[in-house]
Amino acid sequence: MVGFGYFHYYILFLCGSLYIAVAFSVTSVSFIIPSAQCDFQMTSSHKGLLNGAMMIGMLMGSFIWGYVADTKGRRFTLIICMLMDGFFNILSSVSQVYSIFIFCRLLSGFGVSGSTTLFSYLVEFLNIKYREKFLSWMEMFWTSGIILLPCIAWLIIPQTFRIENEYILFKSWNLFVIVCSLPSIILAFLIMKMPESPKFLLTQGKHKETINCLKFVHRWNSNSNDKFPVTSIIMPSSNDKSNNGFFEGLYESTIELFTSKFKIIAIVTCIIHFCATTSYYMLILWFPELMNRFRWYETYSNIQNKTTMCEIVSMYVVEPEVKDVKCDDHIDHSVYMNIMIIGVACIPTSLVVPLFINKLGLRFFTVLSFFGSSISAAWLYFITSSMENIILSSIFEAFSSIGISLTYCITVELFPTEYRGMAASIGTMFGKIGALLGNILIGIFIDAHCIVPIFVSSSFLIISAFLVFTLPKTGRTNIVIDGVI
User: Which H or E run includes 206?
Assistant: First the structure.
């Protein structure tokens, strides 16, 4: 009755732009680390802590924000999370002390972890015909963020301006952090102008607010002031969990999810999130280091015969530290270019999936993505040059990133409104646990036994693909769970 039109395209644009802002916030650290290493006098361990700080914050926040989304609302959660992300990123940009910078990045991660609510917010405005197509378009926005970020970094970070007094030092990388934080704040204010999810309002028994929301959507789509034909809704109200204490309600919501008829799906989706995200972050964060080691081998090695990737990695020699040598915070232009190439390589898959999603389904493309990324991960063992490394990195990024995005889509499709926010957030939490585990594994085995992370990454992706097969099909009006519709 509300129709389909301007409003739905606008909310796709708004949620997609939020996803771009999340991409900026999460991946900008890869440019901050080399640019700020001299100002903070960072050692390798300091860089590792900075790289993991945001991930730890996301791990802490992902479990909490799901409960907030299911009790206070999707719109409320997105506004608070994006404002928190933007504020602490701006605060980090003027931080002069490493420990304060780390703390700000951790709280930024805590805030941005609630951004997964945007999938629930988007899907709850869509009917069955457009739901899967719109959800799958979200990967294109993430890809756009991955492509835009190195462009922004390339424009700002090489600049040589320097603002300094006795209290503050402000350089190009500080400005880069501010620019990356602005989308989160701007989009938070744009969401304030939008209505709350109508399905969430129904679960809270707010029938009058639901009618007002539907009128708002109808008015946008019809581009007129015609009266909305529905004047009242008769529907049983769900239990309002917001009357409980926060931690009591959080505990009860978690227990309720894993004791409901959706408990098997909840467990399976959590395992998929864990396996897929472990594999993704294990290799994606390794690729720049791998590129650097191939560059060293091809430049300085006297060995003429090509050898396997693991042998090249194990031969890498770190020159001894030389005292009184000026710190180098220059980022080679090839770094920006390689990251852009990897981002551009994701465009074909991001375009193809939405075009055929209604015919083949979410499950088909998710399984295909995991199998494709598993093969590219395993093939890393056999590469012999930096060019092959860039090609395989691009293939892995294209398949694995869309696989993870489609996993979020499957999660919000399979769970009803009252469980959707919590299910997506707990899945995200397991994913971040996997990301931290992946970082630990790669650090332990990269030098002496690089076959281990390759084998683990490829195996986890295959496990994810088979687990997706066990889930019910999406894209139907009714989903049967344990004999109950």
Answer: none
DSSP H helical ranges for 40-171: 44-71, 74-93, 98-112, 117-123, 131-156
CB-count exposure of residue 12 (10 Å: 0-12, 13-18, 19+): buried
3-state secondary structure of 304: coil
Q: Specify the pLDDT at position 479.
A: 39
CA nearest to 407, candidates 274, 242, 208, 258: 274
Query: The dihedral of CA 279, 442, 181, 58: what is its sign?
Result: positive
Name the token pair of 249: 């309600």
Going 133 to 134 to 136 to 137, the CA torsion angle's sign is: positive
What is residue 471's DSSP assignment? S
Q: What is the mean pLDDT of residues 67-71?
A: 86
Q: What is 243-257 written as a DSSP string? A: GS-HHHHHHHHHHHH
Instruction: Say if residue 396's pLDDT is above 80.
Output: yes
Give the number of residues written for the chain: 485
Between CA 235 and CA 232 the distance in angstroms is 10
User: Angle 172-192/6-27 helices, nearest 10 degrees?
Assistant: 150
Q: How far, in Å, CA of 270 to CA of 268, rounded? A: 5
d(CA 309, CA 384): 6
Q: Give the phi and the psi of residue 126 in degrees, each rounded to 5.
A: -110, 145
CA distance 283 to 286: 5
Residue 477 has pLDDT above 50, yes or no: no
DSSP codes of every residue in 165-233: -SS-EE-HHHHHHHHHHHHHHHHHHHHHTSPPPHHHHHHTT-HHHHHHHHHHHHHHHHTS-PPPS----
Query: For residue 170, what is the enclosing H or E element?
Result: strand 169-170
Has residue 287 got a pLDDT over 70? no
In terms of C-beta distances under 8 Å and separation of at least 24 residues, what long-range contacts does 72-76 make, across chains too?
Answer: 72/242, 73/196, 73/197, 73/200, 74/117, 74/118, 74/120, 74/121, 74/124, 74/196, 74/197, 74/200, 74/421, 75/121, 75/191, 75/194, 75/195, 75/196, 75/197, 76/196
d(CA 427, CA 59): 11
Q: Is the pLDDT of residue 240 over 60?
A: no
d(CA 268, CA 278): 15
Element (H, E) at 164: strand 163-164
Residues 221 and 213: their CA atoms lie apart, in Å, by 13
In contact, 306 and 385? CB cutoff 8 Å: yes
β-strand pairing of 163-164 with 169-170: antiparallel
Strand-pairing partners, residue 169, are 164
